[in-house]
Amino acid sequence: MKQADFLTQPLFPKFFRSVFGLVLLCTLAALHPNEGKAQDGRLALETWLDWERVSDPQISPDGSEVVYTKSWVNKLEDRWDSSIWIVNSDGSKTRDLIKGSSPRWSPDGTRLAFIAPDDQEQAQIFVRWMDAEGAISQLTRLQESPANLHWSPDGSHLSFTLRVDAENPTSRHWGISLPKPEGAQWTPAPRIVEQLAYRADRVGFLDEGFQHIFVVPAEGGTPHQLTNGDFNYGAPIWEPSGHALLFSGLLIEDADYRWQESEIYRLDAESGDINQVTSRKGPDTRPVPSPDGSMIAYVGHDTTTFDYIESALYVMNADGSNPRILTEGLDRTPSALHWAPDGRGIYFNVSADGYANIFYSSVGGDVRAATEGPQMFRINDASSEGTAVGMWGDAHEPGDIYAFPLNDPNRRTRLTHVNTDVLAGIKLGEVEQIWSESSYDGLSIHGWIIKPPDFDPSRKYPMMLVIHGGPHGMYNGGFNYSWQEHAANDYVVLYTNPRGSSGYGTEFGNAIQYDYPNHDFDDLMSSVDEAISRGYVDDQNMFVYGCSGGGVLTAWVVGHTDRFRAASSNCPVVNWFSFPGEVDGNYLRWYADFQKFPWEDPTEHIRRSPISYVGNVTTPTMLMTGVMDLRTPISQSEQFYQALKAQRKPTAMVRFEGEWHGTSSKPSNFLRTQLYLRKWFERWGDHDGNGDATS
């Protein structure tokens, strides 16, 4: 297929995609004749094969059109595919535009830059003209994947980031010369590792290289590298003058060892000169210049000894002078900063207390909530004229794209209805907020319960407790397909935010410092008690699972209570002594969770490791982990599995092929995760998955 044809191929209609899904449906049927099938108008597992997602909406400079990325399940090749779609800002004339992602409008709205694979399947930068002809130009021919596209104010150039080989590699070769006979077939040379962070989940081993900033002419030409040295440069954003770019990073020799620090810098687009704009100890990130370029908004906080701290919104003059905090009393982390067109304030997203809303702060520090309520409402982009676009959803409505006036977000217009047809006629489980008091210290713990469709308060239902990862994560009040599907199989689903969760302030998030996992277990059990007190939970038929940090706590739960009939510890960490040496990225971050290194004093690492309590486990406990996982390597699951087997305790280990961290990135593995969980719970509980007790 030629390049132009490849880039403009329309998507398969849902009808044909549903036909292709028969391959996976046959697999479902093989597991259980009724699994995945719709019953009495309830959400079915097979519906996932027709599910769609929308993301990254971008509004045209005149506010008339919105482009976004739409993703769907490729049922034959077991992956998520995507393309760029376009819709008028009044919701009319929705159509598939082009294959690609990361669409970005030119300042005058005449062109659209995006990233798409070339005919060699290598990601490149393209530009499409937004006139009737729709001509497409390939701007780059790169060997690595570009990211963080941003137009210069005059539309003449595009900036982006790209990984470049280190200037001074320490391990490319050691000058070793082997006496290799001619024609010999020898084992490939070993990989020599000398850098601190040498691998990453979903990537694998990292070459010795760094992220650098480039610019390329919008009409095509050779990309020009603006930065140099063995440093990582963050996503650049142009100043309104077009003479310089702002970015965050840490341009010092031992940056890898200062993972809690970053500064904001100004990069001259002509000379390549770099000037540091901030100078305090602590992270300063996400710089956004005001419309006239006189000020810079950014996010950051001072260095502390806390493991967790909510960041704040700051502004400073363009030269770095007069930095001042705007959201001191908010104690929630701002994101997605957008200046008001008049430059008098900044709109931003806040995830707080289990929900997401849009906030506004004047440059004088007057902060207010622009939206309120139990919803997931986030701004993504805004035009210079004050029309914005973002995502909205709630517990019963998956996220869709909306347009709204920036100064009045509640006047929103819906632009997409991606899953309306899929959910038509489907009875969803009611979602109810709950609060409980921790048995440890009375701390208020927030959570939610999903009840089965056709809920009967006189019945006793089996219950799943789901535990989030992080540990500084946050469950929210948005739509969750996985849990709704479990509820459709007559489970009550309980999910909570125990101490350490993000979005509830610094003190709450930092309540697990040097103490994880421990009293977050008490929080979880108190939430379970609150659910039981409602009168419809069968307390003799409860189950627990979680992934990553949720896998940690699940393994901890089964070592400290026998109240659950079965458990699934997914992608867990069970041994804090060995884990930092196995994890991807910067292992120093995990050592920082303890007051001493394990070779100085292993006491705390042993006390807080779930495997230390494996002798107490009586609950049948399954382990599920991706075989490629580098974040919580499968060796952690293997340790717990072997320890359970050594004691002849009921266990199973499910090793997911083709998965990095988590077990659900591939559509088929999402289906398997749902089914294996329920099969394990049904095996040990009194619930057959069809809404009937077996006893």
Task: Give a structural overview.
This protein has 695 residues and is an alpha+beta fold. The protein starts with a helix and ends in an 11-residue tail after the last helix. The model is unreliable at 1-34 and 689-695 (pLDDT under 50).
Nutshell version of this structure?
The protein is an alpha+beta fold.
Number of separate strands: 38
Shape: globular
Cα radius of gyration in angstroms: 26 Å
CATH class of the domain at 429-684: Alpha Beta
CATH topology of the domain at 429-684: Rossmann fold
Binned, the helix content reads 10-25%
Beta-strand residue fraction: 25-35%
Query: What would CATH call the homologous superfamily of the domain at 429-684?
Result: Alpha/Beta hydrolase fold, catalytic domain
Low-pLDDT residue intervals, each spanning 5 or more residues: 1-34, 689-695
- Helix vs. strand class: alpha+beta
Distance between the termini: 60 Å
State mean pLDDT (0 to 100 scale): 91
So, CATH architecture of the domain at 429-684? 3-Layer(aba) Sandwich
**Most strands sheet:** 8 strands, mixed
Helices and strands in order:
Blueprint: H1 3-8, H2 14-20, H3 22-31, E1 52-59, E2 65-74, E3 79-88, E4 95-98, E5 101-105, E6 111-117, E7 123-129, E8 136-138, E9 147-151, E10 157-165, E11 199-200, E12 204-205, E13 209-217, E14 224-225, E15 237-238, E16 244-249, E17 263-268, E18 274-276, E19 284-289, E20 295-300, E21 312-317, E22 324-325, E23 334-339, E24 345-352, E25 355-362, E26 367-369, E27 376-382, E28 387-394, E29 397-405, E30 413-414, H4 420-423, E31 431-437, E32 444-450, E33 461-467, H5 481-488, E34 492-497, H6 506-509, H7 519-533, E35 537-547, H8 549-558, E36 566-570, H9 588-591, H10 603-607, E37 621-626, H11 634-646, E38 651-656, H12 667-684
Parallel strand pairs: 33-34, 33-35, 35-36, 36-37, 37-38
Antiparallel strand pairs: 1-2, 2-3, 3-4, 5-6, 6-7, 7-8, 9-10, 10-13, 11-12, 13-14, 15-16, 16-17, 17-18, 19-20, 20-21, 21-22, 23-24, 24-25, 25-26, 27-28, 28-29, 29-30, 31-32, 32-34
